[in-house]
Amino acid sequence: MSTGWETTINTGNPQQDQATIQAWQQQVAAQGLSLQVTPMPQGGYHVKAVAMGAQQAPAPQQAYGAPQGGYGGQQGGAPQGGYGAPQGGYGAPQGGAPQGGGAFGGAAAGGVFAAAGAAMNTNPSAQPWNANAAAGIAPGQSMTLEKVKYLRKVYGLLGMSALAAIVSGGLITSELFGTQTLPLRDGRTVEVPAMVYTMLETPALMWAAFGALFVSTFIASWVSKVKVVNVIALFGVAALMGLDLAPMVWVASIKGELGLTASAAPVRDAGIMTLAVFGGITGYVFVTKKDFSYLKGFLSMAVWALFAACLLTFVFQSEAFSLAVAGIGALITMAMLLYVTSYIFRNSEMDDPVGDALALLVQLRNLFMFLLRLFMSSRD
Questions:
Q1: What span, in angstroms and rounded, lies between the C-alpha atoms of 273 and 281?
Q2: Where are the alpha helices (DSSP H) in 99-144?
Q3: Does the residue 133 lie in any domain?
Q4: Which of 159, 249, 295, 303 lies at a 20 to 30 A Cα distance from 136?
Q5: Domain check: are 295 and 360 in the same one?
């Protein structure tokens, strides 16, 4: 690694900027170099590698907004700060930009929003230096290695927990535990998996399954940072999701086979649509890196309104009203996925992968449920 290279660090997360600078300092120190760090007025830092012991040249005022007289110094008798103590505190960009917001994680999974954090400052003209493989950032790469590793962990946990939910639901709807004969209104009979039959014949059990899922989701969000316990709680929630959705999935499958639904295969179509929406939202946020934190206020009210509307469907017993709630619920859940994904990509403090995976998992479950309700609507 040669001296003289320079670049900018501006992830939008002051703590992450600081961690990146510290990591680089250790790496260049092993090669007899040191980093000169200058805060930028638009947020972030300009860093330059120089030989160990070299004096830092005063940063041009027009380029970076740093006062003359050396790093951390000000004219007019202001106290001079040493290296590593920029004005306003390390990690606080000039101009009063707020630091990153509170954790989101599992709180959003229960419909309760935490602070989404400050808007991310970007510098489109900044390009990573071309000899920084040791720091884990390839030329043209817009994310730090730490962020990439964190996202892999989040989506890895999400994939495994989603698989756990599918396996759980598959076991409940299988004939592994036996079957029961259920007569239909037209005189035909169908064989129902024993556990699904029990839940259909005892509505209190379905309410109990939903209540257990609701409570366990909050518990999982509370322990999302407790090692080992958090992973167990995440997969416990996933298993309860499979149990809770099993009767609905089985009924949709049977109605589809009998030709009573708008879709010939409602479960398949709902699953494909859920994956398509999730993939589209994830790709859009990843490519555009837009901030959707402005949706927080609207969604915090919409989620509770939707919850109340879902309860009313059991009161009115109206097909039209139920489908309307499902359609609106699907749109609100898509907006929630957009918000949560944007938060994870832009504002996450990268210290709660289980909580972030849980938030995504809950929204995927809700989206699948609403879409399944639409696809299993009656043909009449």
A1: 12
A2: 105-109
A3: no
A4: 159
A5: yes
Residue 85 shares a structural domain with residue 153: no
Structure tokens at 108: 């959003």
Residue 115 lies in a domain: no
How many of the other CB atoms lie within 10 Å of CB of 258?
12
Beta strands in 142-300 (DSSP E): 179-183, 189-193
Structure tokens at 333: 């859940």
Interior angle at CA 16, CA 10 and CA 18, nearest 5: 85
Rounded to 5°, angle at Cα 73 from 70 and 77: 130
pLDDT band at 174 (very low <50, low <70, confident <90, very high): very high
Question: Higher model confidence: residue 258 or residue 102?
Answer: 258
The per-type count for the chain, helices as H runs and strands as E runs, is 11, 5
Residues 238 and 364 in one domain: yes
Question: What are the DSSP calls for 256-323, one per residue?
Answer: HHTT-BSSSSHHHHHHHHHHHHHHHHHHHHHHH----GGGHHHHHHHHHHHHHHHHHHHHH--HHHHH
Candidate from 6-15, 71-80, 207-216, 308-317 with smallest mean pLDDT? 71-80
pLDDT number for residue 7: 83
Domain total of the chain? 2
Q: Does 169 have pLDDT greater than 80?
A: yes
Please give the helix or strand (H or E) that residue 163 lies within, else none: helix 145-172
Instruction: Give the residue-averaged pLDDT of 80-91.
Output: 36
Q: Identify the weakest region by mean pLDDT among 36-45, 53-62, 320-329.
A: 53-62
Q: How far apart are CA 24 and CA 146, in angstroms?
A: 13
Q: 83, 98, 113 — which closes off a domain? A: 98
Q: From residue 309, how far is each of 217, 314, 323, 359 by CA, in Å?
A: 21, 9, 11, 22
Domain housing 283:
145-375
pLDDT at 87: 35
Contact at 8 Å (CB) between 190 and 254? yes
| Cα atoms in the 13 Å half-sphere on the side-chain side of 85 | 5
In a shared domain, residues 357 and 228: yes
- At residue 79, the pLDDT reads 37
